[in-house]
């Protein structure tokens, strides 16, 4: 398969066929993100993408069940181009069950509700969205390019179109100073969206990012394992009226808390209380960075 740059995909897409529809990220300015810093963003042509799909069909036959369209924010493509790609996928892989892509709120809201309905009808089944926080101060610190209101609007647009939504939250994104408001406001935003999935990642500063420089200078203080767990507890406590499934499917997390709301909420809080009763030395070094 042809691929330019590093492959990034959600852990839940480990078994998926990955087709590169865009190279890099059209935003590429989040202060914590190192993923596409070396890439200059560009859209690949629909013809090139269709060629890749045909190659994959020749290689895998029709055994493919899930497909992830990479890289960051592939949804920035014109809707009719994406629809053409989705139709090509359905034609070449008639047994495909799930087609997904990354999409952050800033770019989701650039499309109209009717575009999202057209994309769902063409076969787009799930958006993986890095909202990271629902707190405006944290979002500004991250230079996410969107505020909490924009995240709610984007999330509701995806859900209203009948597309599954996986929202990613970064535990510790506000450091020690903004921890409480990050937890509470992230929960408030998610309560208004009711995404299908909420996925937790714990902040590990990545070398070469502005946030890493702040951390090295002492201007950004990482949470200790117990502080990160307490933040997660506060976040879960404030999640109400939703039917989302929460996962901690990432190596950065201190504890694998998971469950479905509303029934598993109390059990999830108990899981965290147990983790909080353990000696902090048992957890990974909080100062560990991503290379
Ligand atoms: S976090 Fe997402 S939107 Fe932000 S720079 Fe990285 S890939 Fe782009």
UniProtKB/TrEMBL annotation:
Keyword Cell cycle: no
Transmembrane segments: none
Keyword DNA repair listed: no
Domain Radical SAM core: residue ranges: 9-243
Cofactor: [4Fe-4S] cluster
CDD domains xrefs: Radical_SAM (cd01335)
Leader sequence segment: none
A Pfam family of this chain: Radical_SAM
InterPro entries: Aldolase_TIM, BchE-like, Elp3/MiaA/NifB-like_rSAM, rSAM, rSAM_sf
Molecular-function annotations in GO: catalytic activity; iron-sulfur cluster binding; metal ion binding
Key words of the record: Iron, Iron-sulfur, Metal-binding, S-adenosyl-L-methionine
Protein name per its UniProtKB record: Radical SAM domain protein
Annotated source species: Dethiobacter alkaliphilus AHT 1
Lineage of origin: Bacteria, Bacillati, Bacillota, Dethiobacteria, Dethiobacterales
